[in-house]
Amino acid sequence: MKAVVTTIPVLGNGDIWSAQDALDMVAATGCDGVVVGRGCLGRPWLFTDLAAASPGRRRGCSRTLGEVARRWRRHTEYLIEFYGSELKACGISKAHRLVPEGIPSRSRHPSPTGPG
Questions:
Q1: DSSP letters for the chain
Q2: I need a labelling partner for 60 at 20 to 30 A (CA). Which of 27, 75, 88, 109 fits?
Q3: What are the pLDDT tens digits along the chain (116 aa)?
Q4: How far lies 76's CA from each of 6, 17, 40, in Å?
Q5: Dihedral over alpha carbons 70, 42, 19, 57 (to 10 degrees)
Q6: What values do phi and psi take at 34, rounded to 5?
């Protein structure tokens, strides 16, 4: 598509779950950028990762469980402010049902005190 369309930006779409997915799509298709949909649900930091992976920026972003927890807390505070109550905010937010998607796995970030 990009080889044919040269006068407007061409965006890739679909299965962007990480910054690496976006880089792979751009490399494989030559598209000018990517569109993120469901990939950001449960990963509100995906946009930070995408910006960090942009040309001329440092590559890779890692986060601790504490950082993930702080971001989810702030996200929840925004939802409560918007909806006016904790019950409405947490009941409506599809993203909150996806929290485990963004929590670093123990296998990738082993405990300094060992397993368990």
A1: -TTT--SS--EEES---SHHHHHHHHHHH--SEEE-SGGGTT-TTHHHHHHHTSTTS-------HHHHHHHHHHHHHHHHHHHSSHHHHHHH-GGGGGHHHHSPPTTTS--TT---
A2: 75
A3: 677 888 899 999 988 988 889 999 999 999 999 999 888 877 777 888 888 887 766 655 667 778 878 887 888 888 889 888 887 777 765 555 555 555 555 444 344 444 44
A4: 42, 22, 15
A5: -20
A6: -130, 155
- Which residue has tokens 């751009």? 26
The amino acid that residue 12 corresponds to is: G
Tokens of 71: 């971001």
